[in-house]
Amino acid sequence: MATPGDHPDGTGSRLQASVDALGGLVDAILDPTTERDRERRRIVALCAPFTALLAIAGAYPLAEVFRISVSAEQYRSVGFSLQAYETLVTDPYYRTVAFNSIWLAGGTTLASVGLAIPIAHALEKYDLPGEDVLVTLVSFPISLPGIVAAFMILVLLGNNGLVTNVVAVLTGREPIDLAIAVSAPGLFVAFCYSMIPRATLILRGTYAEVDHAAEEAAQSLGATPWQTFRHVTLPQIRPGITGALILTFRTGLAIFGTLIVIQTVVVWTLQISRELSTGYDIQVAGAMATVYFLFTFAFTALGLRYTDAEVGL
Amino acid sequence: MTATLLVVVAFLMVPVVLTFVGSFASEWSGVVPSGFVTLQNWREVLGLAASIGSQRSMGWDTLFSLGGVTVAVPSELLFSVGLALGGVFINLLVGVPIAYAVARYEFRGDEWVNAISVLPLVPGVILGVAFLRAYPNLSGTSFGLIVGYSLLKAPFMVMAVRSEFESMPLRRLEESARSLGASWPRTFLTVIVPNARSGIVSGAIICWTLAAAEFNFSYIVWAKGTQPLALFLQRHISNSSFTKAAAAVSMFFCIIVAITVLLQQVGSRGFDTRG
Amino acid sequence: MARVTIDSIRKRYGETTAVDGVSLTVDDGEIVGVLGPSGCGKTTTLRAVAGFETPNAGTVAFDDRDVTNVPPENRNVGLVFQEYALFDNMTVRENVAFGLKMRGVGTAERRDRADELLEMLGIGGMAARDPTTLSGGQQQRVGLARALAIEPSVLLLDEPMTGLDAKLKARLRDEVGELLSALDVTGLYVTHDQEEAMLMCDRIAVMNDGRLEQVGTPREVYESPATEFVSEFVSLDAPELPFVQW
Questions:
Q1: Is C13 an interface residue toward A (CB < 8 Å)?
Q2: Does the pTM of the predicted model rise above 0.90?
Q3: C12 within 8 A of C18, measured Cβ to Cβ
Q4: What whole-number distance in Å separates Cα of residue C155 and Cα of residue C80?
Q5: What's the CATH code of the domain at B144?
Q6: What are chain A's domains?
Q7: B38 inside domain
Q8: Which residue range or ranges hold the ABC transporter domain (chain C) (predicted)?
Q9: Backbone angles phi, psi at C190, to 5 degrees
Q10: How far apart are CA B101 and CA B104, in angstroms?
Q11: Which residues in C lie closer than 8 A to residue B179 (C-beta atoms)?
C-alpha cells in the first residue's frame, strides 16, 4: 500500500475549482455521456457499499461517542462540557494508565520487530528444510485471540507452567515464587506472543521485494555478509521496518483480551472497559475512546506522511 | 538468524502442543500434566458431560431432525459459526467492490481509499464502546455483532481480494468482455469475480476465522444469551480447571488448523495475503 | 463489417495531448495498420474507436452511425490484445461463445459457431480445454476467434503478435492475414513493427506525437515518405525482406 499522497490544501480559488469539479462530478454520475463519466459512476458504485458500512458502523458510532464525551450531562448528549477530558488530563491515575499503554506497546513493538527481522531474513533468504512448515507455524498465532495468547503464557510461565517448573527443579525453589505469568514481564511476553507473528508477516512481504541482484553484486565485489546486509539489504528494507513498527505499535495499543486474563497492568483499553463495568461512566469512556482514536490516527497519518514507511499489509 | 527463528517457533509452538496434550490429562500441577488418557475435559467442554456454574459447558442445539435422527451441535460453536458467516457475507458485499475500484481504476483520492480500506481503523474495544453508545438496543444482538465483525475484519477481505485482482490483467479482461457485448455489471459478475475466486475464497476464510475468534468487541457489547466462542473460551480460561481450559483452547486450535488446511486447499499461502 | 470514419479526434490527459486531430477512414473490408513509436497516440486512437476513451473533440462513426458516445458494449467491435486476456474461468469454447451468449444466441448455435471458428483457426481440438493450458500462439488464436465470433463491425488488433517468438510470428502473420482478407474484415491494426504492418495491411497510417504523418499503401509509405519522420521511421533497420515478393 502506498503512503497517502500529496494533496496540498487549497486556497480560495482551489476551493471554488473543487466545488465546480464536484458539481461536474455529480452531473457526470447522474447522466454520464463520455466513457470517463461512466467510469466515475462505476467507481462511486464500487466504493458505495464500503462507504455505507463505514458510515453506519464506524463514523456514526464514533461521532456519537465523541458527542457524549463532551456532553454537559452524563447519559444524554446535550450542551458542551470538557469535564471528561479535564478528568483525563488532571487525574494522575489516567496519566499512569496512558504511560503504561505507551511503554508496554512501545517496548513489545521494539522487541517483536527486532525478533521479526532475523526471522523474516531466515525465512526469505535461506533455503531452510521444511520452510513451508516453519512459515505456517510462525503464522499460526495470528489467528489466536489475545485471551488464548495469555493462556499460552500461563502454560509457559504460570504456576503450573513448564518454564516455571523446570527452573524450580533446577534451582530448588517453589514454583509459586517463580511464576511470572501474572506480572508485568509476563504480560510483556504475552504481548510479544501476539505481535511477533504479525510483525513477521509484514516483514516477509518487505523481504520478498528486495533486489537480489544488488546483493549478489555487492558480494561479488567482496562485501562480507554483514556489510552486504548493512549497506545493501538494510536500506531496501528500512521503509518496510518503519511500516512494521507503525502497524505493530497499533496492534500493541489495541490489545485487550490478553489483559482480561492477565490483569496486572492497567492500560488504556482495559481502563475503557472498566469505566463501563464499574459505574458505567460512558462520558469518560467516550473521552478515552476519542483520545485513543485521534492518537492512533494522528501517529499513523504522520508516520506514513513524514517517514519513508511502506505499509505492505 | 536461523537460531532466532527456531527459538521463536519453539516459543510459539511449545505451549500449543502442551495445551493440546494437557487437555487429555486429568491433573496438571507438576512440570507436565499427568493422569492420561482421559476425555473427561473434552466431554465437559463440549457439553457431553454435566457441568455447572461458571464452568458451564456448551449447550446443545438441534440442528435438524430427519426421520428420527436428530443432529445436534454445541450452541456456542453454532452461534459463532453463524455470526462469523454473517460478517463474511457483509465483507464480501463491501470488500470485493472496493478492492476492484482500487486495483482497477485510477481516481482522485484512490490512495486514501486504499489506506482506509486496508488499515484497521478502530480496535474492537473502541468500536464496542461506540456501538453501545450509538445503538444501545442493537449492539448486543446477533445483528449488532455481525455488523461490528464485518467492519473490524473488512481490511483482511480487501487485502486478500485486492492482491488477487492485482495479479490479473483486469483492464484487458474488462475491455474484452465489454467489447463482446457484456454490460459493465455483467462483466464484473460473470468475468471478473469468477476469475478472482481463489482470492475471494481465501479472503472469506481468513475473515471467517478472525470473526469467529473475535473477543474484544464481543466482550464489550455482548449482553446475554448464547456466548460467542471467544467469550466462552475466556470464561473457561479464567474460571475452569487448567486441564479443562486446555481442552476448551484445544478445541479452538482444532478449528484453526482445519481452516488453515482448507486455506491451503484453495491455493492460498496461509495468512500471507500478499500476491 | 462497416466503414469506420475517424473525424479529427483529439484526446487530452491533463496537460498532455495524446491524440491531436487525427482523421482516418477505414473502408469496408480494409485493414489499416497504425504504425508508430510507443507513445505516439496509436493505442489511444484504437481505444477511441473501441469506445474505451471518449475523445475531447471529433467524432467516430461506423458507416453513417455516430458512435462517439456509445458505450463499448453497444458498438460491436472485436478486440485482440497482446496479452490475450482470455477468461480463465471458462473453457476455450465458452470464451469464443461469450459474445454470442451476450447477444442471446441459443446454446446449440453458439456451440456450432464457436467450433467452426476454432476449426478455421486450426485449434478445433482445443474447444473443451482450459485456456491456461494452451501455448501463447494458441491462446492468441482463441483471442482472435473470440473477437471474430460476434461478426464485429470492425476488428481492432492491439500489437497482437508482440511477445510471440519470431518463427511463430511469421506463421501466424501469414495465416491470420489470409483469414482476415478471406473474411473481408474491416480492421485497425496497431503495431510498432513496420514489417508486420506492411505485410498484413492494405494501407498504413504512420503516427507520431499524436498526429498522422502519412496514410498510404505500404509501397507509397516506403517509396515516397511524406515527411522526414516517416522516412526515418520506415527505413530504420530497413528490412528489405518484405519487399522481395513485389
A1: no
A2: no
A3: yes
A4: 8
A5: 1.10.3720.10
A6: 12-69 (no CATH), 83-306 (1.10.3720.10)
A7: no
A8: 4-234
A9: -90, 130
A10: 5
A11: 50-51, 72-73, 75, 77-79, 147, 152, 156
